[in-house]
Amino acid sequence: MTGQWLGLVVMIGVLLGAGPVRVAETVTWLQWHMAPGHILFGAQRGRGGFQRVQDYLVQRIPEFAHRTMEISRAARDQVIRNLDEFCLVPAFYTLARARSYVLSLPIFVLPYGAVIAADRSEIAPLLPYLDSAGKVDLPNLLADPSLRTSITRGRLYGREIDRALRQIGRRPHLHTAPHGHTPALQLFAGWIDYAITYEVEIGFAAQQLGEPVERLRFFPVANVPDLALLHVMCSKSPLGRRVIDRTDEIILAAGPKPPWLGFLDEWTPETTRRRLDAFLAQQNPWADPTELRALMLARRPVPVTPATK
User: Fold this and answer.
1) Which residue of 95, 124, 136, 265 has the fewest CB atoms within a 10 Å radius of its CB?
2) Closest residue by Cα to residue 53 from 111, 117, 109, 124
3) 26 three-class SS
4) Is 83 left (phi over 0), alpha (psi -120 to 50) or beta?
């Protein structure tokens, strides 16, 4: 009995000497259905391109506990405002976001804004709205009540496209869709004349329906940059800053060809992949680690200026 008590006393002493047990801080990653970036439904659930980017990061930041919160697109902005701690991927850089949140170095590149997609056999009505460079005059196209289109409820398409949509307002020929790839599905079904969507969402819809993506033709929108960089975004808190610092280290370590750039390839139309490859050959943002490191070290509060959306 004496030996048992002695052992218990020794064990308590060891535990007390070890100090308090540290509990890892928890990072909450937000996901909403945005196929093929985030896929929350169906046979490919969890295999979205940006979900795989998140998984890649989580595996390399083991000092934090991680959990995923699935939310609706409609509730996303409210959830972000109400949460003290969160991270998400992807996010476009805007001045408003830079003032309110912490953004990583560039982690992904995609065609910026949306393209106008139309069935190749039925593009004649769109031709009057093309400029000499083959780009769409979107404000005038949207104003044509004879051509039906669809936009995704509650999403951003890029500053110029969002402005054109706000100016046109609600019209009977402008339908809304619940998910990002829905306009592409509607286009393949012949319910609309053109879709305002992202090319990778067209590729996902084509795969879902067994349709050849070559059936459609893509038209870029006038006055919209061809490509944009995407970032990881976290709450502007000590934890959020540490997650972004670790994310930046992972980006720097990945070199000029980060492996996650291929995570959307299976849904990306061939023409889009060629354009992305050409962009990376000419101005690869990950090619110069010295420049990336300087960007990371130079990160400072952004002056308060009128936000652009």
Assistant:
1) 124
2) 109
3) strand
4) beta
Strand partners, 174: 149
Question: In CATH, what number is assigned to the domain containing residue 256?
Answer: 3.40.190.10
Residue that the structure tokens 């930046």 belong to: 248
CA distance readout (Å), 18 to 12, 15, 21, 23, 207:
10, 5, 8, 14, 56
Q: Quick: pLDDT tens for 143-186.
A: 999 999 988 877 777 778 888 989 988 898 998 887 777 888 88
Distance, CA of 260 to chain centre: 13
Same-domain check for residues 237 and 279 = yes
Q: Say if residues 211 and 186 touch (Cβ distance below 8 Å).
A: no
Count other C-beta atoms under 10 Å from residue 136's C-beta.
Answer: 23
Give CA–CA dist 258/89, Å, rounded: 15
Q: Which of 111, 120, 116 is nearest to 129 (CA)?
A: 116
pLDDT digits (tens, 9 = 90+) for 201-251: 888 888 888 888 888 888 889 988 777 789 999 999 999 999 999 999 999
What domain count does the chain have? 2
Percent over 70 (pLDDT), the chain: 87
Q: Which two tokens stand for residue 199?
A: 């090319």
Between strands 115-119 and 216-220, the pairing is antiparallel
